[in-house]
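Re: your question from the hallway

Yes, I did run it. Sequences:
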Amino acid sequence: MIRLIARRELRSLFAMPSTWFILAILQFIFAWFFLARLEAFLEIQPQLAQLANPPGVTVTLAAPLFFTAGFLLMMLVPMFTMRLIAEERRNQTLALLLSSPLSERHIVLGKFFGLMSFLLALTVMLPAMLYTLALGTTLDHGLILSNCIGLILLTASYVALGLYVSALTSQPVIAAIGALAVLIGLWLADMAATAADSPWHQLSPLYHFQNFNAGLLDSSDAAFFVLFTAFFLLLTMKRLHNNRVYG
Amino acid sequence: MRAHILGYIQDCLQLRSPLTLSNATPEITLSARKLTRSFGKQQVIHDVTLELKRGEVLGLLGHNGAGKSTTLQMLTGCLLPDSGEIEICGINLLKNPAQAKAHLGYLPETAPLYRELSVADFLIFAARLRGIESAEVPSALSQALQRCGLDSVKNKIISTLSKGYQQRTGIAQAIIHRPAVIVLDEPTVGLDPAQIRDIRRLIRELGNTSSVILSTHLLSEVKNVCDRVEIMQHGKLIYGDTSARMQNYGQVSGFPLTLHNPPALSELQNLPGVSEVEQLSATQFRILHPADNNPSGILLSQAAQLGWQLEQLTPLQTSLEDIFVQITDAEAATTGVLP
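Structure:
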């Protein structure tokens, strides 16, 4: 059932022209950023080579690329999550799901995994681009892997939050702006807190991505993402249940 | 320990029994007992008790805002009642929602359509959602398409279809899994007369194999489609009877009569079956008679025999609209609430 709803979600996504448009724009930005960084790296490579322990192409290229992707997804994910439940509610299709033999768990997880698989397909282009460099040089596979894991966890936390905000309203636009406001708010709180041990840092998903970005697999960061995602998914299930209670 | 095991076995048996019941297709497919529901402090549904048998079409009739849609939402599990019990094919909807909903098809007021999908894709999704095995999907799909007359548009995107076809797609998603109970909320709203006729014929057909409950404020729908009627007002069921008997509710039948050569008034009054005669003018009368005894036949033969020169005899039927207003007004008068 979860897979069925996820597949339906994917189908509807690909049936919309806006999805293809966003996909194209995002690929363009990634490619442009990748090439610009590559050019910059080639320019400074002679100087880097004089250092005792020069940074390799993976660190100078992959890490900023993944960080930019993480940042862009913060802006983009609310555009995708806004429809998930708010639009079902507005088009009255939620009644179909609520009157079917499913539980809230199936609906929420189906939508979550549906959008996640779409976003995974979108971000898989990043390692694919990087691995084209393997034709001419050796890459740091560990760094790329930790970045990939980090980006997946980061995206999952964004999607869970966006899904919850979408469950609160019947207006997709409000859902998008709401999710964007919360995500940017968390990021700004992280940025504005100057003290290194400020608790505000701990709230921001992007802050927890930094260790993954640097190639460091920290279980506490992973735990943060898992808890953040699970928390908002559970809240969404609760909200959908309340739909039956409060009408 | 032993008590524990016994308790476990009992639990298993209790869990099993609804399953076996559902296979035996029981006579009563839907029963709701004492449903109440309030939104905030306002109670919108009071003690609604409904029962539906297999092969029966029940019309839920009422003014706008009488609580019809809310009742149907509760019957389909989209809204939880504050109190009361709902059983579908003997399975408690509130305790075992997933099992009970497998026997349920629901068309809400606005058809729940994913407009970006094609008709066939959408119906396949609906079928799988209701738990039809993928091997059985093609046959269920072709039957639903054929029953709802959607064969010609099955590959079209739903958003490009006319309102009538969209509504049919909505009905198709509600019947594709051949549910025992079909709930339709105002299924003919916004359709043209030809489409309304088609959909009514379809509902009538569905009523042969399943139970159908439909809400409407169109009285002609009740007359043409429903076997039984429940009238709802201010969240209460105020009248329930067969649709045929409702049409005779509080009815004194009568007809206007014009005779060019009328006999004495008493002569008309003494005819068997006539309960009252009103003289409207020198040649025009109104004959009133009980619903089950129509004197028009006798009157015709008498008029011919005695040379009354009959010019006009029009059977008068109280319209369903009048009956509906009578019933709701009578209720309003007893409760002191204006409709």
